[in-house]
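User: Fold this, then the next.

Assistant: Folding the first:
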Amino acid sequence: MNEHNFFASAPQGLLELLADELRALGATAIRLQPAGVYFRGPLLVGYRACLWSRLAGRVLLEVGVGPARDADELYTTVQRVDWRQHMSARGTMAVDFTGANAAIVHTRFGAQRVKDAIVDQFNAKAGIRPDVAVRRPDVRVSVHLRKPASSGIKGMFQETSHDEAVISIDLAGEALHRRGYREEGAEAPIKENLAAGMLMRAGWPALAAAGAPLVDPMCGSGTLLIEAAHMACDRAPGLGREYFGLLGWRGHQPALWTELLTEARARAAIGLSKVPPIYGYDGDAAAVKAAVANAARAGLGGRIRVERRELAELVAPETGPSGQEREAIGLVATNPPYGERLGVRADMPALYELLGERLRDHFGGWKAAILAPDLELGHAIGLRAERRHVLYNGAIAVNLLRFDVPREAPPPRKYTRSEGGEALFNRLRKNRKQLGNWAARHGLEAYRIYDSDIPEYAIAVDLYRDWAMVQEYAAPSEIDPVRAAARLREALRVIPDALEIPATQVVCKRRERAKGGGQYGRRDDAGDMLEVREGPGRFLVNLTDYLDTGLFLDHRDTRALVGQTARGKRFLNLFAYTASASVYAGKAGALSTTSVDLSSTYCAWARRNLELNGLRGPQHRVVEAECREFMARELRRYGAIFLDPPTFSNSKKMEGVLDVQRDHVELIRGAVRLLERNGVLIFSTNYRRFRLDQERLADLDIEDLSASTIPKDFARSPKIHKCFRITPRR
C-alpha cells in the first residue's frame, strides 16, 4: 500500500496524547508540531484517524508541497497538483488557508489565490469549474505556509530554499470534535476532543475497564458523560457522523471505509454492555434535558443516569463496580462554568469551595479531574492537586487539576478577611444602610451600592432586590493581574457576607467592550429574568446573559426627565434597548410611544416591559429597525424624542458601523427633523470622552443636563454619561 504524509491538528496540551493515539492506529514517522502531529502511513491509517481519533480536530492528507514566496508562486504551486484526481469539475469545494509570509499576509487573500488556481485549471482543461460551498463541500482543500526548515516530512516537490505551501485534502471535512450526537448548531461549553483528553489525562480508560463509576456534578449538556461512555464501550467517536470530507474526494476508497465502519459498529455493539455506572447532575433543568437528549442521540439511552441536582446536594453514588458499597473508588470529572466564555457566573470562589467541600465530605478515596480557568480558583477547592495540565478550550487556556481525594476528610478551612477585605466589608455595610433607606423612600429596588470606593477593590456593585451584580473594571496594564484576581476573589467572598445574601446570588462580570465591538454583547444563555421596581414602573432585568442587565441604572433620572417631557405628547424612543424610557413616558401620560431598536431580542424584551406596566395596544409600538433608516423614512412627528445611541456598534444587521462621536450630528439632525413644533429632543450618551459639536449644531438650542441627571448612587461617577435637552431655534 502507498505511504502518505498526514497531519492531524489538535489543541496544545493534547499533542502527546494524540501522538500515542495515532501510533496505536498504525501511524509511523510521528512528529509533534505546535498545532498538531505529522505522521505517515497508508490511506487506511488516515481513515482510522478520522473514525477513531478522540483528540484530533482535522486529518489532512498531503497532496503537494512547493514554493510560495509570493502570490504568483503560490498559484503556480497549487496548479502543479492535478486536481482532477481529487474533485469533480461539477462538484463543490472550500479552501482553508493558514500561515503568512512577507508577500501573503492575509489568509483570505491566500485562500482566494488557491481557489483561483484550482478553478483556472478546471476551466482550462474541462471548460467548467467546481462551485464553492462553505458548509460541507465535496472536497475541502487546506493550504498551510511554512518555512522549509520547519518541515517534518518532505513532499512530492523538493524546492526548499524559500517559503513553502503544504497542500492537503481535509479528510475530516469539518472539525472532528463534532461527533454527530449534538443538535445542529448547538455548541457545548467544552469541545468533545478536549473532554476526551481530560478523561485520558485523568486515567479514565483504566478506571472504566475496572468498572469504576464516573460522576459529573455540573454536567451541562453531557459532553463529559458521553465521551466517557463512548471511551468505555469502545465506540468510535466518528461513528455517529454523517459527513466526512473523504466521502466526496475522488481518491476515496469506499470498500476500505465500509470495512472500517462495519468493524466499528461491531465493536460498539459488543462494548455497550461494558459501560460502567456514569452519573450526571446539574441544577439547570434545561441542561439536564439537553444531556438526556444528547445521550439518546449518541446511542446511550438508559446507559447514563442524568438528574437535576444542585451542587450542594452532591454525594457519591450508593454503589461502585460489581455493586459493592461506596468504598470503591471512582472519578469525579467536571468543567465548572467560568469567566471568558460565560461571564463569571455567581460567586466563582464559593462554587469551587463548595465543590471541594462535597469532594472531601463524600468522595474520600476517589479521583477528581476539574477544569479551572486559573489557579486561584483551583486553590479554592481546598485540595492539593497531584498533577496540573494546561489545556485549551478553543482560545481559552484552562488548568486541568487532578486530585486524589483523601479518605479522611481534613478539617474545613477557615477564611479570614485581610485588612483590605475588612475595610470593604465595612464600606458595603455602611453604604447599604445609607443608600438602602434612600432607595426605599424613592421606590427603588435596583441601585448602585459601591463604585471603587476603595481603589484597591476596583469593582462596582449594583443591588437588584436580593441579588448583587459585581462589575470588575479591567485593571491597568501596570497592575499585577495575579494581585488583581486575588482581590476580586476576596471581594466576592466579602460581598455576600456584607449584604447578607446567598453567595449564589452574586453575579460578576468584567466591564470591558464585548467582542466585536458591540455594546450589549451576549455572555451566557441562562435566560433568567428578575422583576424590579423603579419609581413608577416595573422592569425585567437579566443579570447573567449580557454585559448590561436591560436597565441602565445611571439613566434613572434621565428616564424621569423623559417621562416629564413626554407627558401629553407622542413619544419616540430611538435605540430603545429594552424600552425602559418608553415605560416612563407611558406611565407619565404620553399619548403614544414608539420604541425602535435593531435587535429582535431587545424588541421582544421591550414588549414584555411595556406589557408588564399595562402599556398595551397599537398606541405603544415596538419597531424592529435600524434607527437611521427609520428616521429617514418616518412620516410621523413627535412631541418628545429620546435618542440614546450606543457608543459603538457594528451589528451584522446594519451596513457599516455606528460611532457616536463621529455620527452624533447626523443622528441629532435626523431626530430633530421628526419633532413637532415646540417638540423636545433628549440626547444621551455614555461615551465619557464625548464632545458635542456645537459649531455644526449652532442652529439648535442645546442645554447640558449632564450634571443634573446623575443619580445620587452614581455621585462617585459624575462623568458616567452626557445628557442634553435640544430644541429647534425659533
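Now the next one, as you asked:
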Amino acid sequence: MKEKIESILNKYNNDPSRLMDILLDIMENSGYVDEFSISVIAESLNISVAQVKETISFYHFFSEKPRAKYNIFLNNSITSCLRGFKEVKEAFETEAGTSFGNLTEDGLIGLYETSCIGMNDQGPAAIINDKIFTNLTPYRARKIINDIKAGKKLEELVYENHGDGNNAHPLMNTMVYNHIRKKSILLDENYEKFDVIKNELKNISPQELIQTIEDSNLRGRGGAGFPTGLKWKFGSRMPGEHRVIICNADEGEPGTFKDRVMLTQFNDLVFEGMVLAAYATKADIGVLYLRYEYKYMLNYLNSVLDNMRKENLLGEDISGIEGFKFDIRIQLGAGAYVCGEESALIESMEGKRGEPRDKPPFPVEKGYMDYPTIVNNVETLASAVKIAKNGAKWYNSFGTKDSLGTKLLSVSGDCRFPGIYEVEWGTSIREVLEMAGAHNVQAVQVGGPSGTLVNVKDIDNLSKTELMKWYKPSGMMTAQTAFDRKLSYSDLPTGGSIIIFNKDRDILREVVMNFMDFFIEESCGSCSTCRNLPRIMKEKLEKIINGHGVRDDIDDLLNWGKIIKLSRCGLGQTAANPILSSILNFRHLYEDHVMAMTDYDNQFDIVKSVSPANSFVGRKFIHNHS
C-alpha cells in the first residue's frame, strides 16, 4: 500500500500544490483515503495531517471512510425533483435495502445524494462509479440495483448505448445528449478548427489581439460580466516569472449545463481561446479546471490536447511563432460549488479547501502560485476565437447597445424542449418560453438559484418602482407582463441558467426550499453570514409555510437578506436570493401563509415548548395567565 501511495506522490513530484490530484488518484485506486495514506501524504509533502484532512473533508467526492463497490450519487437539484426524484430515490432504497447516506451490509452498494451534476435537461440523473445515468425512472433504478446484485459490470448497467455527437466517442461513450436546440454565431459549425492559430495569429501582435477583444466589448459569460479585453490587458502588464490562463469549467449552478455541451462538442474553440489568451498576455501555463461531475470527459479532452501538441498548437514555438510557449493541463475538481468563484478555484488548484480569497489582490495580480492569472469562463474563451476570426465590428452587430453578442442559455424545467439555446442578448423571456415549448407558466428562474425568480405579473399589480422598468422616455408602455423583460446586462443579466415552473408547482415549498438547501449544503463555512443565515432563513420560511408565521417574519427575512450580502464571495452574497427574489415577485404567497391582523403567533404553545427543559432539570412548570 505504501509503495502505491509513494508511486502516486512521485507522479506529481511530491508537490503539495498537486494534493487534489494525489487524493483523486488514491480515491481511484482504493475508494477512500485512510489514516495511513493521510500520514504518508503529510510526511512526504511536508505538510500537516490536518492540512490533508481539511482538503479531504471539504470536497463532496473525497472520503476518509470506505465506499462501496458501486457508489450511486443521485442528483437532487430542482429539475430532478420536478421529474420524479422522490420516486427514483425510493426505488433505489427499497431495492438496495438501505437508505441514502449508507452502504449495504455487504459493501456492494452505496447511496448518496448530490447537488446539480449538469444534467438538468435529462434528469433525474445519477453518477455511478463516474459513469452518467440519465432519464432515470423507478423501473430503471430497480433494474440497476438488481443487475449490480447479479454481478454485472458497470458497462452492462447502461440502458442506452450512447448519446449524440462526441458523446458517442469511444473515449466517452456516454448516454448523455447535447440537446442543442438553437445555434447562432458561436455554435456555427462552419468554422475550421484552430484556423486562427494556424493561419492568422502570426500576422497580428498580442497588443492588436487585445485591442480587438476590447473593441468587441466581450464581457465575461460566467455571470459577473467583467470586460474580457480589459482583463487580458491588465494580465499582460503584470510582472511575474510566469503568467497563467485558467478556463473555469466548474459550472455548478443548478440549471446550468452549457459548458458541458461546449466541452463535448466545441472543445476546440475553448482550447483555441485559451491559446489566444496566452498569446495576448504572454502566458505560458494553462489549466482547464473541470468539475468532477464531468470526469467522464477527461480522457477524451486529454486526447484533444495530445492532438494539439502533435500539430504544434501547444508546446514550444506554437504555429511557428518563435518564443510562443504554452501548454494546457486539466485539473479535476472534487465536488464543491464554491469553486466556481475564481479565487476559490485557484485555492483548489493549489491543493487546498476551496475557500474564496480576500481581495485585493485580484487573481490578475496574484493568482495561481502567486503568478498573474487570467480566469475566463468556457463560453467567454470560445467567443474570443470567433471575434479574433471575424472582427470586433462583426461581433458588435449582434445583441443590444449595452449587451453585445450572443448568450448560451441552458433551459430546463417544465418545458417540452429543454436544452441549449444560443440567442442574441436582448431576447425576451417570452421568446425563450415559446422556443422551449413552455405552457401554463407560473415563474421562470433566471440565472440559477442565485439569480431572479420572475413572475408573470400584470402591469396593474406592479409597484411604482417596478413600473419604471416598463416605460420608455416617451411614456409609452413597453411590456404587458414581466415575461417581456429582456436578457441583458441592463435588465436581466444571467450566466445562462433558465428554469421554468408551471402553475402546478408550489413555489415556496418545492422551489425556494430546494434552492435554500443547496446554498446551505454548498457554503464553504468561512463567513459567519453565509454559514448561519441561510439555515436560519430556511427555518423562518418553514415556519411561514407551516402556518405559524406573522408579517414581521417576512420583514425579518428581508432584513437578514441585507446582512448576508456582507459575505466575501458571490455565493454568500447571493445565498438569500431565492427567498428575497420570491418575496419581491411572489409576496402574495407569503401573505397567504401568515396570519392576517395579528402581531404574534397565537398558536405558540409555551408549555410544550419548555417541557423538555423542565423534564431535564426536574422542574415543574407553573403558567401565570395574569
